[in-house]
Amino acid sequence: MSDVVVLLSGGLDSSTLLHLLLAEKRSPIALSVHYAQKHSVELASARRVAAAAKVELREVELGFAAAQIFSGARSSQVGKNLAVPEGHYADETMKSTVVPNRNMILLALAGAYASSAGIGTVAYAAHAGDHPVYSDCRPDFIVSCALTLLLGANIVLEAPFVELSKAAIVRKGAELGVPFALTYSCYRGNLIHCGRCSTCVERREAFDLAGVADPTRYEDQTDFWRTVTKAKP
After folding, report:
1. Which of 78, 82, 21 is nearest to 54 (CA)?
2. pLDDT range class, residue 228, cuts 50, 70, 90
3. How far, CA to CA in Å, does 31 sit from each of 18, 45, 105, 160, 161?
4. For the CA atoms of the chain, what is the radius of gyration?
5. Cα–Cα distance for residue pair 130/165, rounded to 1 Å
6. Best CA proximity match to 138, nearest among 155, 114, 111, 161
7. How many other C-beta atoms are found inside a 10 Å radius of the C-beta of residue 132?
8. Is the pLDDT of residue 148 over 80?
9. Would you give the DSSP letter of residue 32?
10. Which residues contact residue 227 at a Cβ distance below 8 angstroms, ignoring those fewer than 6 apart?
11. pLDDT-derived band of residue 233, with 50, 70 and 90 as boundaries?
12. Domain ranges of the chain
């Protein structure tokens, strides 16, 4: 019997969270959502990560409905066809990667599923590196959603990475034996990581800072990512 629903995108953070729950002897069930994201190829990674961990994965298809909802969004990931920006996550240009209210939608779905299945906990992998750009990864948002889920459905929300950096998550993942090569982060949605978009830059920097070998194949093999991260305080 599952005791926690974990939102699994197929990315590095949520995959590490899945393995953390398993290491804690929990019984997670994973939930992935297609919300018309440009990088929907990440969902294939979610399947691979869940299969490798021998964890059941439930997939929710919101593509058509989400495309209608986000049709006017000024986002490079949904809605209007904006170019995916390059550079560091904290750059002003990265605001164009925001998907309006995404995590509230995902947490509401996970909470509804958990309540329907008789599961008392939902977990998601928001982390400290996302705070500057994404308001729905900040501690105050998490506290608010936790209260809403608790009062509305008696569901406990866990976000154990909220104060951790991406590098710290990589180190934790390495300790847990996360199959990083199965995970996916690129916002361009190519089969091979581009190496230049914000999530690729953050991924490369995190492995470097963590001192963990990066198994990812990148189209861009230059030092572009180093030039944009070293310029940051």
Report:
1. 21
2. confident
3. 11, 13, 13, 17, 18
4. 17
5. 9
6. 161
7. 16
8. yes
9. E
10. none
11. very low
12. 4-230
CB 25 within 8 A of CB 140: no
CA distance 92 to 98: 12
What tokens does 207 get? Answer: 């492995």
CA dihedral 74, 78, 79, 81 (to 10 degrees): 80
4-230 is a CATH 3.40.50.720 domain: no
Q: Is the pTM of this model over 0.85?
A: yes
Say if residues 55 and 68 touch (Cβ distance below 8 Å).
no
In this structure, are residues 90 and 131 in contact, taking their beta carbons and an 8 Å threshold? no
Are 38 and 83 contacting, i.e. CB atoms less than 8 angstroms apart?
A: no
pLDDT score of 80: 62
Which tokens in the block code for residue 130? 């996302």
Tokens standing for 200? 């690729």
Task: Read off the pLDDT band of 231 (50, 70, 90).
Answer: low
Backbone angles phi, psi at 29, to 5 degrees: -120, 135
Task: Please tell me the distance from the alpha carbon of residue 89 to that of residue 201, in angstroms, as a whole number.
Answer: 8
Q: Give first-to-last CA distance, the chain, whole Å.
A: 46
